[in-house]
Each structure stands twice: as structure tokens, then as C-alpha cells.
Amino acid sequence: MGVPIPRYIGTDPKAKSFAATVRTQVHAHFQQRGIGLKADNRVALKVTLMLALFFAPLVLLLVFAPSAWMALLLYFAMGVGMAGVGMGVMHDALHGATSRHQWVNDLLGGTMYLLGSDAHTWKLQHNGAHHTHTNVDEVDQDIDPPDLLRFSEHAPLWRVHRLQHIYAFFFYGLLTLVKLVNDFFSLEKARRTKHTRKETYNYPLAFVAMVFVKVAHVTLFIGLPLLLTPLLWWQVLIGFVLMHFTCGVILGTVFQLAHVVEGTKQPLPDAQGIIATEWAVHEMLTTADFAPGNAFITWFTGGLNYQIEHHLFPYISHIHYPAIAPIVARVAAEHGLPYNVKPSIGNAILSHVRRLQELGRPAMQNETLHAQAA
Predict the structure, then answer these.
(1) 338, 310 contact by CB (below 8 A)
(2) What is the pTM of this model?
């Protein structure tokens, strides 16, 4: 890795006070209203609906053995439900934000295994690298995709990147399919780079459990339809790929709308590993909200359209983000900090496409090199 793990050290007194001020005012919001930071009964309904959207189409497929075309529609619905479970059920729980009871968070976070993925490696990559070092090249894996995509202005530029704004969404569709295999590599990387010598996580057992999860996932969504329906093997395989592709497009798009859009920064640490700003300010510079007034988008994405609030307060349930967003925006303005918001989902997607175009142009690389030289 060419980039050292960053440390965030700011010198601007006004910017340095931002974190303490916004934390104080957000927590005062909850104290004054006598409400907790975690979720309430609204999340129970969401969990039920998302799991139903994911599994009900599978039950219909296995029980009624529909035609091939209807089976594809059911697999598509499973993909939407799969994305909904990932965003609205699993995500908050793995941040410890759903409940004050850890066993509840563990149970709901475990829904990630239903998606064929691994919670431990996800927390290392997402909670650790992404949330701590947002948009830092070679550290934040969310902006370090395969070479056909260029999400960082500091990454190598290839001729094919000129078209990435056209083909990027296809590769988003491969997100969860690739993760079915990549989890094993992530687990091995985690084993080799333990955070402390005293880490007691049982990696051999985790590997066995991961194999079991992957086999169970494939058995559930490929094996059972092959055994219990008249669908041909290739029809089932197409349905399985469609399910994951649908989920991947939704998840990949939502993830990138928060960080790879116009106005978000991608700072690098200096030779001493320092990024010259406070961590909370860094999050304001590297993160964006989108469609804050769209209640359905907020509900379906599990509040991931309020990424600024989520990055500053990942331990607070997403159901509270619409209420605390005006507080964050006001405090940011008082401290002279940007509050990057795309007003609609369409505006955010267009901004992402334009940003991909910028990152695919040689001019972007030249500007980056000039900036680094200066």
C-alpha cells in the first residue's frame, strides 16, 4: 500500500469545534424529547416487510412452480428484497444502531448471511476502513474497485475509463455476485493483518462457517428451485444471476451516490500520514446526502440517503436522520463547512454520472498531478 493509514489533525480552531458542537446539539435533540438514539417499532415493521419481500417470492416460486417468465419476475422481486434487507435491516444492526441490546443487533446483522455474505469481513471493510477513512485512495475500499472503474482521482487512468459513466452501472450489478467469492479473500486478508496480537477471532472456524453460508445460499436459491420446480437449470441460473444483479445495481448505485458525486473531496495524507483537518470535517468534505425530502427513498434505503448524518453518527438509528439533518446543516453553516446535498434521486444519479465522466478524462489526471506538485 502506497498510502499510509491517515491521522486527522486540523489547525483551524473554528473547524476543530465543529465535531463537539454538532455532537452536543444532536444529543440535546434526543434529551429534550426524551427519546433514545436507537430504533423504535417502525423498524420492526420494516424488518418484517423486507424479509417478506426477499423470501415470499421464493416461496411462491417453490410452491406454485410458475412459468419461466413469471419465475424471472419473482427472482427480480427477490433482488429488490435482498437490497432492502441489506440497507434497511442488516446495515444499521452491524453498526450497533438498531437496538441497545447487542443480541438484537447481532440477530438482525446476521441477515447478511441470508444474502450469502459475511458480517465480520463487512464490518472490517465498511465500519473500519470506509467510515474511518472515507474517500482516501488505497485505504477506503469503496473507491478502490477493479481497474475497469476509476472512482478516485489519484488512481491510474486508462483509456477505457472514458466510457465508465456508461458501463459502470452494469458492474454495480456484479457487486454481490463477486462478493460471494471475494469474502474468502477478505477473510484471509483480515487473518494476515490482525489489528492486535491479542485478537481472538477464530479464523479457521470462520472459514468453515463461510463455506456453509455460501453453500446454503446457493442451495436455497438454486438447488431448491431445481428440485421442486420444472424450471431448467439454465433458467434457474439466469434467475439467480438476475436476483443478484438487481440487488447489486441498487446497492452499488446507492453507495456511490454518497461519495462519488460532484463536490465530494478525495484528500491524501502527507508523507507523515496526516490529513490536515479534523475527522468530522473530513466526513463533511467527502460525503453527500441525496433526496432528503423523499420519504420512500429514505425508508427503502434505510436512511442511506442521509450519508452525512450516518457518517457522523453511525450509532444512531437511521429513522432519526431526517430530524437531525437540519441540526447538522445549521452547525455546518455556522462553522463555514459545506453541506453537500443533491435534492433528488435523479439529480444525484446525474451528478454521479458527471463525476464518473470527470474521473475518466485525462484532464482530471493532469489536474490532480498539478495539484499534488503544488
Answers:
(1) no
(2) 0.92
C-alpha cell at 337: 463547512
Does residue 133 fall inside a structural domain?
A: yes
Cβ distance 321 to 303 under 8 Å? yes
Neighbours of 74 (CB within 10 A): 23
* Alpha-carbon span 18 to 209, nearest angstrom: 43
Nearest CA to 231 out of 75, 51, 54 is that of 75
Burial of 314 by CB count in 10 Å (0-12 exposed, 13-18 middle, 19+ buried)? Answer: middle
DSSP state letters, 29-52: HHHHHT--SS--HHHHHHHHHHHH
Q: Which three cell numbers stand for residue 339?
A: 453541506
What confidence tens digit (pLDDT) does each residue in 32-52 have?
999 999 999 999 999 999 999
Spatial separation of the C-alpha atoms in residues 33 and 47, rounded to whole Å: 25
Count Cβ atoms within 10 A of the Cβ of residue 56 and give its class: 0-12 exposed, 13-18 middle, 19 or more buried. Answer: middle
Cα gap 287→309, rounded to integer Å: 9
| Domain count within the chain | 1
Q: H/E/C letters for each residue in 114-128? A: HCCCCHHHHHHHHHH
Distance separating alpha carbons of residues 287 and 308, to the nearest angstrom: 6
Confidence of residue 192 (pLDDT cuts 50, 70, 90): confident
Are 112 and 119 in contact, with CB atoms under 8 Å apart?
yes
**Residue 1 maps to a domain:** no
Q: What range does the domain containing 78 cover?
A: 7-373
In the numeric block, the cell 416487510 is attached to 49
Instruction: Please state, in angstroms and rounded to a whole number, the distance separating the CA atoms of residues 130 and 188.
Output: 19
